[in-house]
Write a structure and sequence with these properties.
This protein has about 120 residues and is mostly helical. About 70% of the residues lie in helices and about 0% in strands. The protein has a single domain (about 1-95), classed as PDCD5, DNA-binding domain (Helicase, Ruva Protein, domain 3, Orthogonal Bundle), CATH 1.10.8. The longest helix is centred in the first third of the chain and has 36 residues, at about 5-40.
């Protein structure tokens, strides 16, 4: 390949990456804007703290709040106590049930053998 072709491919790839980054930035700004309208200051602080510790749970809460805002289910700004209730609700829905099963080996167990 000629240097010109490689340079053209590089420019095209760079343009694609910049376009993707611009879309991500726009989506992030839109999410933050919606969350700023929906949450009061203390609730936003709690959600930010949660995002530092458990980003996947914070993302789920953000998605839930944005969806509720889009459908008009929220009647004003959510306080910190309201956010705590939503967190508890989401935690109950995503709670993992852990079960432990013991499989014991029966090596040289006299109860299993027939005594004649």
């Amino acid at each position: 390949m000629a240097d010109e072709e490689l340079e053209a491919i590089r420019r095209q790839r760079m343009a694609e990456l910049q376009a993707k980054q611009a879309v991500r930035t726009e989506e992030t700004e839109m999410r933050n804007s919606i969350l700023a309208q929906v949450l009061d200051q203390s609730a936003r602080a709690r959600l930010s703290n949660l995002a530092l510790v458990k980003p996947e749970k914070a993302n789920a809460v953000e998605n839930y709040l944005i969806q509720m805002a889009r459908f008009g289910k929220l009647g004003g700004k959510i306080s910190e106590s309201g956010l705590i209730e939503i967190l508890e609700k989401i935690s109950q829905q995503t709670e993992k049930k852990t079960t432990v099963t013991f499989n014991r080996r029966r090596v040289m167990d006299s109860d299993d053998e027939d005594d004649y």
